Protein 1
Amino acid sequence: MKVTLVTGGSDGIGAEMARQVAARDRSNAALVLAGRSAGKLDAVAGQCRAHGAEVLCVAMDVSVEAQCRSLLGQAVARFGRLDTLVNNAGMLAYARFEEVAAQDLHWYEDLMKVNLWGSVWCTHAALPEIKSARGRIVAVSSLSGLLGVPGRSAYAATKFAMTGFFEALRSEMKSAGVSVTIAYPGVVSTRLRHRGYNARGEAAGFSGLKEDDAMSVEECARLIVQGMQHRRRDIVMTTKGKMGRFLKLLAPGLVENMALAALKDEVRPR
């Protein structure tokens, strides 16, 4: 039995990844689902169990180091091993830096704790088991972890940090037979984009980006699951993202114009 732990597993991409792993591996799948909402986790767990998977749900907050370490302890205590860690938990933010008042800058640190430190703490706690299994580590980053997007200064900072950390870890773990896959989704049709912070550190209620060609949650999860199974290094999910990654080196001004073009035309809520 292969054991997969998914943070941010209560809804969105994480929940869909869990369902797809359960549907694919069925009775050979053991899943650990972590998230803040016990009720939502239980609902996803029921869908996974319907495919024959064993599931452990842990209600927790990745921005708290002790809870990250407890999560891994509970996973190993229940299943005796860990083969794959999916660092998926994350928060969005949409605010131009100049709009953020000095007294509100603390939420930049809060965002970093969720997006970067939650992944670092979970990975550190999981590493002995992952090395023993010669397993997989997955980091769900964002195109904002490759290209700076206007209005995403805080979010991009967390995702660029994730990219640097997991690229370095990949090199460190190569000789141990551990793969590190970094996924770079673009705009995905999840409610997460509406719960992200605004300039005051409150739920923005909107994403600020054009979403006419937003990727479905199902397709995004499928690409990540497929990539981690094949131990791919990077999964850049959009054509524009792939182009922008290389054009950034050759024509950075053009990439900045592309990023500006991705913004919504209407006046943004403040």
Protein 2
Amino acid sequence: MSTVRDRPGWISFREKLRGSAKVVLGTWVKIPALETVEMLAEAGFDFVILDGEHSPMTLESMYRATALSQALGMHVFVRTPDRSGNYIQRLLDSGVDGILVPQVSSVAEAQRVVSDMTFAPEGRRGLGSTSRAGSWGTLPSTEYVRRGSEDIVRGIQLEDAGVLDQLDEIMEIDGLDAVFLGTGDLGLSTGLAAASPEFQAYIDRFLAAAKEHNLPCGTAVGSGTAARDAAERGFTFVMVSNDAKMFADGAKAALAGAVDTS
């Protein structure tokens, strides 16, 4: 069966995050529609994160968006609905390129979710080679396991002050491939303004630890200008806005000047 992996120059998302000489750009997908996914691919995004935490996307809609995104040349990360691990097995077997688990709050929790994304005996992921990730059983089980072991990005989202005191221990976890700083919830947990020196110091600590442990590190911003600033600061992958916000802004811009607001 011919797949996107057979295209000349294809590299895994894991390789892309680790080997790209420039920042890797993505956006959040919150609208469960294939048309918007197609538009994001045409816009030129490197990857998308299907947002299972803060959107109405279901397992089925994420599955379909994964297939289309990859067919159009984008890698697919999925943010799970929570940190329970309930969706991890099924999402990985849907053929996604990586998983991002939100609200990881301790070393033990980070170890558990990484284990959920890792095949036994090192982890708890089970064999599902008759799934889409195994080309519906046409891929040899050994290759299915290799891809699931070597190509998948196992990511966690860190977003409270307490967990940032455990950065070194967390980033040393075997099998962890990427870390993401959730600045929105970090602001809530610390009570600090984003522009404050104290808040910026948290970001600096995160970036320094990621660099020391040679881990791709990401964050989310609202604009292309902010993405460039984040890249210059040291983030290796950056989420720029989201599909719903882009549509909302575009709708407002389309009506600008046409409606009498007096």
Protein 3
Amino acid sequence: MKCMLLHAIQTNLQEILPLRALFLQENNFQIRYNAQHERGWSDSYLIMQNEEKIGYGSVANIDDKKSIFEFYIIPSFRNLAPLAFLELVHASKASFIVCQSNDLLLLSLLFQFGKDINADTVLLEEDFTSSIYIDNVIFRKRNDNDTIFEHRAEPVGTYVLEFNNEVVATGGFLLHYNMPFADLYMEVREDFRRKGFGSFLIQEIKKRCYLAGRVPAARTGLDNIASKATLIKAGFRVAGFMLLGQVRLT
């Protein structure tokens, strides 16, 4: 009987792409750290059983912590996932695990091999089509001559809400996520908050997102209750959380 040899070897991004395509098919939701790959901010590892490529792992410095943020094993070899994960930890010398709670494989390994686990971000997905309307508010694309209020949390968006000839909110969507998902964002002028403008803006941006061939998704800080309520009113629902844990090997 042939001895099973399981190990993780560092490789280049191209080598893991066929396996990552399977990962994305299985996990049909927005991947928060998708851009780590295409921007060259992560290290790629193949998981090998003897000479067979049975999975991969991705490791990056996220918030100054060397973290495993993606891990995939082909379903027919998934019983080897815990051992393969340990091989990845040893090969990469990662000290942390960053995990979306809707990524069930990595989630199970986070709870098996992690400690001091905490959440900092709420992930949201499309749920329903809202029908919010506010009198005398115009939704349109931002013009170069628009006077834009100071933004403190988000970038100035592609779209604006105009009220009484003033821009009172801006927003847009980002495209550096796995297809077909896009990440929506917005900011409302402080004196117009808690009046429904944010939800109305997100509702209209969702339409433009679909027209661009993308599925809207969003995220917000765990403690940002107002932002979460705004997104839910505009037709989103909670899809999961971003979790961080320190690797525990004993």
Protein 4
Amino acid sequence: MPYTLNRLNKANVPCFGQLFLPIDNAKIGMPPLEARGNRPLQMTFDDQLKALIFFHLEEHTSAQHLLQVLEEDDFARNIIAPEEGIKKSSFAEAINSRGLEQLAHIYQNLQTDALIRLPAQHDELGTLIGIDGSLIDACLSMQWADYRKGAKKAKVHLGFDLNHSIPRKLFLTHGKGAERPFASMILSPGDTGVMDRGYQAHDLFDLWQEEKKYFLCRVKAKTKKTCIEATEIHPRSNVFYDAIVLLGSPGINQTKKPLRLVGYIVDGTKYWIATSRYDLSAEQIALIYKLRWDIEKFFAWWKRHLKVYHLIARSEYGLMVQILAGLITYLLLAIYCREQHNEQVSIKRVRELRIKIQNEIRIATCDTAGSSLEKHGISSRYAST
């Protein structure tokens, strides 16, 4: 039987194989994906997962673009797509109605894997979870994505591990979804949530202290402060305030439990940080809040370079499938860049990976064509003539 391109496997494309390799361990214990009724699955879960990772890795602009590539591109047709190809109806059905439980399982296990493989950048500061939300532009037909008249948006609520630079817990709501309740759902006991002023809520500050969940949240400068005990400040420090206080107005919104308030100034801007971390210096508190900007950079990078928000699904279920696949792709890239280059994820390394994958399939294609020609007595050096 002649050796054809259809018989290529991951061993022939080491870059994609290396990127995809952590999935094998992440799938351990995964619930099986089963067909509904008697009709067999037109796409296996592996087909679905590889197609979604390929979508994010290669920056396709739509589902139609992806499906065209899966049909016409040598690498995609033979390594990513199933042997029978992917029909548009099968792809849409898979994205919008199945695979979410399996993706969530892989996402959770990849996080655990990444935490082991990736070094903590500020281990002495504890487990730092940046918390923020990001809006996703939706289509007017997406009725569940309520935002305002004439506009539909969904919102991602994300916890981001600031020590390891990887995404953690994730929730999806309509665009008007309140952000503060999700902070409690994202935080685990022992974690330190790092948040901006939009999360200032004095009742939550009390609750988190009861639940042993640490927090570090910027508060509005005009917030009323009742000082209980002040700490002496070094005159040359950019820190100008460090005290144990009650926040808010008595009888209205004052905290029941005292907390620490640190004030410091950077480039003429004053920052007021409420926290339950008493074990750190005021300078370390300022450093942690500076690290919070990493989640903003992640959202910008994720949107721009992984094209996560080119919608290929319209249902809430399908959008969650797409977003989880994007986060899985990011985790795979984080592991790959650390193991191959001892670096964090960068667009330079992502582009380099894309080029290597394409070069490897071209070499494999040329080798296959050359072997076929030589078998028929034609020298490969004359193949193009």
